[in-house]
Amino acid sequence: MKVLISILSLFFFIENSFCQDKLVRDKVLAEAYLLYNSEKASWNGTDIFLEKFPQKRELIGGYLSYSESDLHNCIFFDKSEDPNLLAKISFNGSFNIEKAKIDTVQRKLNRLEKDLFTIRQVALKEINQDTIFKTYKNTNLNPIPIIINKEKKVFILTGPQISGVVVLGNDYLLTFNKNNKLKNKKAIHKNIIPIEYNEKTDDAVTMHTHLESTGDIITSTDLCTLMLYKDYLNWKQHIVISNKKVSLWSFDNEHLMIMAKKAWEKISNFKKEKKD
C-alpha cells in the first residue's frame, strides 16, 4: 500500500510540475530551434561557399543566417560599409547539402538582412571593447543575430576550435530596440562548461548545474549547442539542475522535460529505495 501511495505521489508531482512548465518549455524550445537553424545553416553554408567559391574567400566581410518560410538561409557579404551580397545558400529542414540552393546574384542586403547585419556589427564591437565578454584558449565567440516577434537579439555562443569537446556556458545575450540600438547586455552562464566526448562516452548521461542568475531551466543556448553536436555524440541524455527545477533533454527524440526539483528528488529517492 505504501508503495502504491509513493507511486501515485510521484505521478502527481510530475504531472503538476509538467503542466506548470509547459509554456516555459515551449518558449525555450522555440528559441533554441531558431538558434539551431541559424547555426546549422551557417555551418553548412560555410562549407559550401568555401568549396565552390574559393576565389571569393578574400572578399568576405562576414556572414549571417536567418529563416524565412521553410528555408534556412546563410548569406555572405563583402567588406563594404553598405555591403553587397556575395552568395545566398538556402537549405530545407533536412539541411541536406545536396539539396541546397545557391544564389550568387549581386545585390544590396534586404531590410531583414540589413537589420541582422547591423545588430551583429554592434555585437562584434561590444565583444572587442567590453570586458564582460570573456575568451578562453582554443575557443571563439560566435554572435548569432535573430529577430523574432519584432524582438531583436544577438546571442553569443562559445565554440571550440578543437575536436572532442562540447562547450556550454560563457554565452551572452544582447537586446536591441526597434532602431537597432543596444538596450541591454548580460552573461547567460557566468562560467564555461567544457564536456569531452569520445567513443567511451557512448550512452552517457551528462549534466551541469545552473546558478540562480542563469535561471531555473536549461537555456536555449544550451539546447542549441546540444542539438548542433547531436550527430557527433552518442549521448543518451543531458540534465540541468538548478535550485528549483531539473531539465532533462533526451537526444534520441529531442524531447525536453522540466520538473520541480522536489519531484526529481522524490523519483531519485524512490529508485534508491527500490534498489535497496
Automatic annotation (TrEMBL):
It comes from the Bacteria. This is Uncharacterized protein.
